[in-house]
Amino acid sequence: MKVSCALYLEVEAEEELLTLDWDSLPQPVMVLGGGSNLLFTKDFPGTVLHVGIGGITRHADDRVTCGAGVVFDDFCAWAAKEGLWGPENLSLIPGECGASAVQNIGAYGVEVKDILADIRAYDRKEGRFVHIDPATCGYGYRTSRFKTEWKGRYIITAVTYRLSREPRPVLDYGGIRKALLEKTLTPLVIRDTIIGIRREKLPDPAVTGSAGSFFCNPVVPEDVFKKIEGNPPHYEVEGGIKIPAAWLIEQCGFKGARNGGAQVYPKQPLVIVNATGEASPQEIIGLEKQVIDAVQAKFGITLHPEVEHV
Ligand SMILES: Cc1cc2nc3c(=O)[nH]c(=O)nc-3n(C[C@H](O)[C@H](O)[C@H](O)COP(=O)(O)OP(=O)(O)OC[C@H]3O[C@@H](n4cnc5c(N)ncnc54)[C@H](O)[C@@H]3O)c2cc1C
Questions:
Q1: How confident is the model over 7-34, as pLDDT tens digits?
Q2: The CATH classification of domain 56-200, taken from the options 1.20.272.10, 3.40.50.300, 3.30.465.10, 3.30.1360.120
């Protein structure tokens, strides 16, 4: 289903943000990246603004600055080709560099916060450009202050990542080490391996619509964890024990379950896909609710969506 907005604005240079008459724009104003973590549930009454600023610049100390509109995987491919370490485990994550710093994207044991050096943004509150130190961004699992108390305040125009010529492979997650046995480790080899693993498990956004992981993996206290039957996979994190939401959803019998055109992806139940290409937002939200209710009833655990509903 198609949705519309009152106004769509494409910004291609920072100066354009300084000359915008913000008060005259249809409200609210939201910033769109690649749209890969958003579920538009209805028409949007305000302005959708996309920062299409491109460019990848390598600095002498191997920091690399990307315009917010650079496709994140293009940056990963560029870094791997240059032989620079840092983002290789994050290969093939959809979306743009601007959003990478909002979402704290992560995969295979690496989060983008591990390689962030600087964020440049337009501060709508102060009406000026600022540099934001990543240490102040409150990064956690798929979250940051950009998603909470800073929501709507900053429009990110560039992100600087700290890369390295020194090998620093992270191999202890998701079967990477096994897949790399007997291979000479380079950023490019790791990138290709990660891409292969991801293609096996996840729907290709060019073919099947999805927003990636629909739910966050829940972190529960030890007493709740101990009550769960079936020996769930888990690992200890700050604040409790993290359990894969995919396992909980599968235990509730939802692998492959459908609601109209919406489907729990059979190969990875954490993902809800638009299986027919015709699924309505209501069908997706309906399936989301069924999954949340089933996991709550069986395990007493509340799943929260990772996907932002607009
Ligand atoms: C098939 C698939 C697989 C995925 N796998 C992963 C994965 O492994 N790991 C992972 O972490 N995520 C994953 N995702 C989720 C998604 O790729 C990330 O959340 C990504 O960062 C979204 O980028 P985007 O540019 O599409 O942002 P959008 O979805 O457009 O926006 C996300 C948020 O960022 C804000 N935003 C975007 N750009 C800016 C800007 N310039 N300034 C200020 N705010 C901005 C938006 O307002 C919104 O709140 C996956 C998604 C899909 C579809």
A1: 999 999 999 999 999 999 999 999 999 9
A2: 3.30.465.10
